[in-house]
Amino acid sequence: MLSIPHSLTGAFLASQIPHPAFYIPAAVSAHYLEDWIPHWDFGTGLSTGKRSVKTALFFEVLELVATFGLLYWFFQAGHAQIQWHIWLGALAGILPDLLDAPKNFLKLDLPFLRPLTDLHHFFHHSTHHVFFGLIPQILVVIAVYLLK
Fold first, then answer.
1. How many domains does the chain have?
2. pLDDT confidence of 15, banded at 50, 70, 90?
């Protein structure tokens, strides 16, 4: 999935669960569950060569900017102080993707990360159908917005 639904889910969990010992593992677990749903993201096609690393990285950076904007709009706007638990939950929500980044973008298969990247790949189900791959993600964003 895109970083947007993963981070918003993590932020939402952090807003509902009072302690990081509970919301961090919940956000990471939610990432795997969301990745189980067939989805499309900017990395789709990297392993087959249909998408270049440069193109995927460019769109990932743009998406992260959008992610920060949505996180701010959904959870931070109107609060005088930084809601650190929200941002930590959002970070936990994208952690499996961050741990996969060296392998996906730099072709670095780091042995100490292999068990975690293998777990991530077990749950990860991509589709090349952009429309059908974005629908579940849009639904997650709407659900988080309505439930926040």
1. 1
2. very high
